[in-house]
Amino acid sequence: MSLERIQARLTDLRGIDPASLSRVGMTAAVRRRMKALDVSDLEAYADRVEVDTLEFDRLVAAILVHETSFFRYPGSFELLAREGVARTKPNSTSVLRIACVACSTGEEPASAVMALVEAGVAPERIHVEASDVSARAIEYARRGVYRPRGVLRLPDAQRRRWFELDGEGYRLLPSVRERIRLSQANALAPSFGIGAGQFDAVFCRNLLIYLVPEARVKLLETLVRMLRPGGLLFVGHAEVAAARAMGLTMEAPPEAFACRRVAQPTPLPAPKPAPTLPRRRPPPRPAPAVRPVVQDALARASRLADAGDLERARRVLQEAIEQGPASADHYHLLALVESACGDDDACEAALRRALYTDPQHDPSLMQLALLHDARGERGRARRLREKAARVKGDGDDA
Ligand SMILES: C[S@@+](CC[C@H](N)C(=O)[O-])C[C@H]1O[C@@H](n2cnc3c(N)ncnc32)[C@H](O)[C@@H]1O
Q1: Which site in 227, 257, 263, 316 is 20 to 30 Å from 244, CA atoms measured?
Q2: Which of 13, 132, 210 to mutate to test the pocket of ligand 1 (most atoms within 8 A of CB)?
Q3: Neighbours of 198 (CB within 10 A)
Q4: Is 131 exposed, middle or buried (0-12, 13-18, 19+ CB in 10 A)?
Q5: How high is the mean pLDDT of the chain?
């Protein structure tokens, strides 16, 4: 019960969808925080989280993944660079304004600056506003010293150009850091983005997937408002459908995961909260044993999709599916790849196969709901979300 209270607070204050979190990861984070405070009673800890905002922030930081990397989805930065060069012609004086919302430890805004300067944009014509709700992540970004593992993945020339050795790590040079203003901010706060002016590009990647529909729509409305008409919104590979549902048009190439604000967006009405429904556990369908080679393909395709290589990710998945037996996760990842490529029909077909393989695969239920949202089919979307919530509840009881 106390865990449910904590989850409800996460939703109320941060818009986080408990269905997007792993129950195991969440429980482990709560246990870690309880241990740090020397609290042994879960009920007492839930009471504390309700009154102690600092502890609430620490718990959120322990739960949310700050996973990020330099040049994550390289296609996004290639598109940004092309756009930047076009908008900062030598005879103009305009400054390119970029916002990085949920920038985690700063790799994303740094990559934006590096990509633009490497493409020939003068550094003084670049201004990046980067923010994250986590004070610790922002503190890390301000220090600007990164662990070798992330930096050593960059080509040698790039590493030498932008970093210097600093003890055990690599310090990002001031020429990049000077272009970025970092701040701690909750993107769901009503005041977020107000008075900041409009941006040529807004990055908000891999946050929308964690949010309940109401919070997701609210954040997307804020992001669209922050964009000047014609500006680009960069999202994560599983978030393109949500951005398109706001009336933005998908931008080529698909592996840039970008949408353009062309006209006034048509905001979605906030979906109604799912009513509490009686839980009925559907009869379990025996899952086919997935062979290790097919399992490896999933990891490989996931890495390729994350790197923006959608074509190869699709090929790897299709081969694995042909070899079979494939799991719902294979079909679900294929659906994300199809969605990122803008092929909604192929996305839907893959999701339906995922749900045929495992009718309780909640990521597929949620993704299919998103697809129906994008088509304005609110009733269908709502029913799928209700089903996902029921499935999640059943899983939690297990
Ligand atoms: C998975 S990371 C994504 C980092 C980066 N955008 C990327 O895609 O590589 C998600 C980030 O969202 C941040 N976050 C979560 N809720 C937020 C909120 N309400 N406002 C701003 N940032 C938030 C977390 O602190 C975390 O750093």
Answers
A1: 316
A2: 132
A3: 15
A4: buried
A5: 86
**Smallest CA separation from ligand 1 atom 8, residue:** 205
60 lines ligand 1 (CB under 6 A): no
Global pTM exceeds 0.85: no
Tell me how far the alpha carbon of residue 277 lies from the centroid of ligand 1, in angstroms.
31
Residue 28: phi, psi to the nearest 5?
-65, -40
Whether ligand 1 lies within 6 angstroms of the CB of 132 is answered as yes
Tell me the pLDDT tens digit for each residue of 206-244. 999 889 888 999 999 999 999 999 999 999 988 998 898
The residue with tokens 């949408």 is 259
Task: Return phi, psi of residue 43, to 5°.
Answer: -60, -45
Type of residue at 305: A
CA distances from 284 to 288, 357, 358, 361 (A): 12, 11, 9, 12
The structure tokens listed for 358 are 């495992």
How distant is the alpha carbon of residue 237 from its chain centre? 8
Q: Is 187 in the pocket of ligand 1 (CB under 6 A)?
A: yes
